[in-house]
Amino acid sequence: MMRKRFYSFVLMGLLLVGAFDACGGTGAAKPEVTLTLKTPIYSLDPLKEGTEKDMYGFLLKAGEAFAEQYPDADVTVKVVQFENNKEMDEVTGCYGTENAVDVLCSGFFNMSSYIYDGRVVPLDDIITDEIREDIPDAYWASGQVEGRTYMMPFLTSMNTLCYNKKLMREAGLEKYISSRDEIQSWTEEEWEEILSALKRNLPDSVYPMMMYAGDRNGDMHIMTFFRSKGSSFFDKEMRFHINTDEGIAAMQMLRDWKEAGYFPTNCDSMVMMDNFDLFINGQLVFYVSNPALYAVFQEAGMDEIGYVNFPSLDGGGYCTDNLIGFEVLDNGNEDQLAAAKAFVRYVYESDWLDYSTGGVTCSRRTAEKYDAQAQERGLAKYVENASHSVNYTGNNPNWNGVREVFYPHIQDLLYGEKDLEEIAAAIDRECNAAIRDGYENMVLHP
User: Fold this and answer.
1) Count of CB atoms within 10 A of residue 239's CB?
2) Which tens digits make up the pLDDT trace of 257-266?
3) Taking residues 292-315, what's their average pLDDT?
4) Which residues 6+ apart lie within 8 Å of 283 measured at CB?
5) How far, in Å, are 32, 70, 79 from residue 74 at the CA level?
6) CATH match for 158-320+392-441 among 3.40.190.10, 3.90.180.10, 3.40.640.10, 3.40.228.10
7) Fewer CB within 10 Å, N- or C-terminus of the chain?
8) Residue 16 has pLDDT above 80, yes or no
9) What is the pLDDT of residues 163-221, one digit of tens each?
10) Tell me, what's the pLDDT at 354?
11) CA 6 to chain CA mean position, Å
12) CATH topology match: 30-157+322-379 vs 158-320+392-441
């Protein structure tokens, strides 16, 4: 009897120890993990009702939901939103600190640079067959380096020009205003007729075309203008190739537009958001647009907006696709890294993917789910315009470095004091040097 009682006590003790360990006792406590999610300021207007209206709100809600169900750690989610021109400070500037980013949600054109720092981890181990098949191959290819997937496509936000229909009518340009919800294209001659009429027929305080060179933000739009006279922009090796007859002709066009008064005064020192303010205030006819700006324009009372591609030599026009998505960075903590990767997978296997309808979703099943709402919102026009899209990064490393040296030359172009050939040669030389540095110093995560 005593022996049975002894074994009962031993068994009871083992059960209590097991229960103590499971509840956080020695040796089996769940690790405590803080996940830092970061995103630039990015407006969203998802097709699902009752959702947050920006990327910050989406990440905050999704992070909280993830933490509640994640079994392998006690997760605290911290979401940091930063201004677009502060991204490098918030990413590379925080390496090795307690503010280092674990999950970044941003544009591929910036995020691609961080892959070559060796901190961004490949995500193929969390991409199930279902996730892989749900997203078109072209989007996956944009996030891959040497066959491994470093960036997860979430949505694509096509960049076109947009125009104020009311101001176009006031300038007598009704014939150019489409009655369809489409992205238009105009010939060289039509562009010149439109811009000159706007300058001639509107008050001096209203400017026909956006332009800015105060910092690097929005530089992709200026690069798109560089193609307008037939330039390929890149050579066969995807290096800058602006110093050509076609490239210089496009630069001459921009300088002529500046001298004709088509651009805002002092545009060489203005930034993109200065132009946005002018557009919202009815002082700028043409600005840039993407699906995410639909709600912004609506809230500002601007419901008469037309859309048009950037100019091209053949009149078909150009646009750019800006993929937005996720990447995960390794900050030296295995539990933290595992949770960061699990969060990204969680988004792609849950209804949080509905937030990708804040642009043109990369998910086939999500697109099908919200097809009716997308048609009503006018997102179909972006899908129909996809053939006009051009690759503005060439998938080159160190694109952040390229951007830092590119925009000062646009200032020189707008100042009007340097020869165009000199500026074009400097762009090719300095941008290609930045790309070369990217290749020479690239390090991929093991």
Assistant:
1) 14
2) 999 999 999 9
3) 92
4) 205, 206, 207
5) 5, 8, 16
6) 3.40.190.10
7) N
8) no
9) 999 999 999 999 999 999 999 999 999 999 999 999 999 999 999 999 999 999 999 99
10) 97
11) 67
12) yes
Instruction: Determine the 3-state secondary structure of 388 from DSSP.
Output: helix
β-bridge pairing 103-107 and 320-328: antiparallel
pTM for this model (two decimals): 0.81
Q: Is the pLDDT of residue 74 over 70?
A: yes
Domain boundaries, the chain: 30-157+322-379, 158-320+392-441
What is each CA distance from 203 to 173, 261, 283, in whole angstroms? 15, 12, 9
CA torsion angle for 90, 93, 94, 97 (degrees, to 10)?
-160
Examine the pLDDT at 63 and tell me if it is beyond 70.
yes
Among residues 320, 325, 321, 322, which one has the least CA distance to residue 120?
325
pLDDT at 28: 66
Confidence of residue 13 (pLDDT cuts 50, 70, 90): very low
Count Cβ atoms within 10 A of the Cβ of residue 133 and give its class: 0-12 exposed, 13-18 middle, 19 or more buried: exposed
**Does residue 50 come out as left (phi exceeding 0), alpha (psi in the -120 to 50 range) or beta?**
left
DSSP H stretches of helix in 86-128: 87-90, 108-115
- Is residue 382 pLDDT above 60, yes or no? yes
DSSP string, 391-408: -SSTT-S-HHHHHHHHHH
Question: β-strand 183-184 against 305-308: which pairing, if any?
Answer: parallel
The Cα 311–Cα 226 span in angstroms is: 10
In CATH terms, is domain 30-157+322-379 a member of 3.40.190.10? yes
Separation CA 35–CA 76 (nearest Å): 6
The two three-digit tokens of residue 285, written as one number: 């006819």
